[in-house]
Amino acid sequence: MKKNVIIFEHNIQKYPPILYVLNFLIARGESIEVFSCCPDECMVQQYKEKGVSFHNIIDNNVKDPQLKKLTNLLNFRKEVLKSLQAEQPEDIRLWLFGESCIWLFYKLVYRFKSILYLFEIPSFSVKFKYKLLSWGINYAEVLKQGHKVVCCEYNRAHVTKAYFGLFSDPIVIPNKPYIVHTDHFIENKSTIDLSAVLDKKIILYQGIFNYPERKMESFCEAINFLPNDFVICLMGEENFYKSELKARYESERVIFLPYQKAPSHLEITKSAYIGYLSYSPESGNIKNVLNTLYCAPNKIFEYSKFGIPMISNDVPALSYLFDKFNSGRVFDNDSQSIAAQIIEIDERYDSYSKGSSALYSSVNLDDSYLQLLS
Fold first, then answer.
1. Strand pairing partners for 56?
2. Which residue among 114, 164, 282, 303 is least crowded, i.e. fewest CB within 10 A of its CB?
3. Residues 253 and 196 sit within 8 Å (Cβ to Cβ)
4. Which residues pair with 274 in a beta bridge?
5. CA triplet 136, 140, 144: central angle to 5 degrees?
6. What is the mean pLDDT of the chain?
7. Taking the CA of residue 338 as centre, how many other CA atoms within 13 Å lie in the half-sphere pointing to its CB?
8. Which of 86-100, 190-204, 229-243, 282-296 has the lowest mean pLDDT?
9. How many angstroms separate the Cα of 317 from the Cα of each of 106, 292, 361?
10. Residues contacting residue 326 through CB under 8 Å, at least 6 positions apart
């Protein structure tokens, strides 16, 4: 049996596709070795108890100075390469997650049977930092050398194939997270108390607060056009933009919630009446435009797991899914339009809820991952 070597230089806890792969491989009884970062020692221990060899050997903090980040990456690569030095090519199935990880370990792609798992549209050139770290890399040739290339959305896959001249279509695997039974999320339950609004219709945003891509002003202002039985909740990590929104909009009907680590955040998700998404492209940035218009958020599956209808601004990827499954509505970027779509869903809630559940059931990731193991 081949050993699955999973490499990722950031916190795997924040990347649902990696967690799904891990759980999929564990369920199959596969041999697994992980080189990554996970600050949650409880999660690391749980994986070790399931037979995973977990090397928690990098702390790639986004707030660190650039020199420290470079040093961390170099030390991480050194440790991984040392560990794999004696491995035979026929014994290893290599999983590299994210393009920066592919850049960092590109030489391993020529040595091992590799699955190159892209989270976004690939950059159209290697970033300068990684040119320094991986001198001589030819990104297109590395992608062509990979045994399988994975993209999370249909249009992204075709852009990737066309731009880099790949010989075959990337495997499209949507960002559907691994969700355990709803009554047994995790041992550490959410600390957020929603008891005061559980009798209300909660319109929930969960995710990062990132302006201008995740604009929230019109969403917060939409409460002025909704009946009193609706409340808006926004959940995510603290930052300057979230603080600005709180200062302007926080009230009994616009509620800001702290970040909850996965998967405990799902205890909040399941209380939502409608899920909110926002994806605004950045003018002049072609990679951002493509990633935004053809977004592939794991949130659509977190909402749809519980039959929660969704609303979003009008981007092709989400508009297509909402139309295909009758799982949500798109709005113009103003508060009255947002409120109007919420009321439209409210009036036909059972129909949209069934459509949301159908969206969730339409994707069987186990079948997709089996393609990667061949």
1. 36
2. 282
3. no
4. 203
5. 115
6. 93
7. 26
8. 190-204
9. 31, 9, 18
10. 351, 352, 354, 355, 358
SS3 assignment for the chain: CCEEEEEEEEEHHHCHHHHHHHHHHHHCCCEEEEEEECCCHHHHHHHHHCCCEEEECCCCCCCCCHHHHHHHHHHHHHHHHHHHCCCCHHHEEEEEECHHHHHHCHHHHCCCEEEEECCCCCCCCCCHHHHHHCCCCCHHHHHHHCCEEEECCHHHHHHHHHHHCCCCCCEECCCCCCCCCCCCCCCCCCCCCCCCCCCCEEEEEECCCCCCCCCCHHHHHHHHHCCCCEEEEEECCCCHHHHHHHHHHCCCCEEEECCCCCCCCHHHHCCCCEEEECCCCCCCCHHHHHHHHCCCCCHHHHHHCCCCCEEEECCHHHHHHHHHHCCEEEECCCHHHHHHHHHHHHHCHHHHHHHHHHHHHCCCHHHHHHHHHC
Q: How confident is the model at residue 189 (pLDDT cuts 50, 70, 90)?
A: low
Q: Quick one: pLDDT at residue 115?
A: 98
pLDDT of amino acid 21: 95
Sequence-distant (6+) residues with CB within 8 A of 161 are 168, 169, 170
pLDDT(336) > 60:
yes
Residue with tokens 């005061």: 196
Residue entry with tokens 């926004």: 234
The answer to whether the peptide bond before residue 174 is cis (omega within 30 degrees of 0) is no
Q: Is 277 in contact with 311 (CB distance < 8 Å)?
A: yes
Tell if the pTM clears 0.85, that is, is over it.
Answer: yes
Q: What is the mean pLDDT of residues 319-324?
A: 97
- Give me the count of residues in the chain: 374
Neighbours of 324 (CB within 10 A): 12
Q: Which of 225, 329, 201, 231 is nearest to 277 (CA)?
A: 329
